[in-house]
Inverse folding.
């Protein structure tokens, strides 16, 4: 199996691969370092998911875990 060059990677390609623009309603993105971010208010403020996981592990929580972003659930437009 051939491996792709790291220089061929981009945040835009990752967002396309994950389909954030199709289903994320502006609430998800990939930052310049390649980490997934959540935007609970669909604005410029973001939370790096890995930071949340790292903090939970630091509190001795174990995987698997459910991460809930309260403001995200409030802002999502679910069909009636």
């Amino acid at each position: 199996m051939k491996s792709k060059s790291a220089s061929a990677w981009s945040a835009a390609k990752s967002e396309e691969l994950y389909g954030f623009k199709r289903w994320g309603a502006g609430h998800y993105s990939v930052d310049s370092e390649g980490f997934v971010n959540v935007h609970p208010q669909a604005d410029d403020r973001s939370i790096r998911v890995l930071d949340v996981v790292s903090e939970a592990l630091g509190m001795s929580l174990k995987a698997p875990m459910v991460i809930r972003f309260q403001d995200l659930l409030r802002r999502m437009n679910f069909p009636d």
Summary: Residues 15 and 21 are 7 Å apart (CA to CA). The first strand starts at residue 28 and ends at 30.
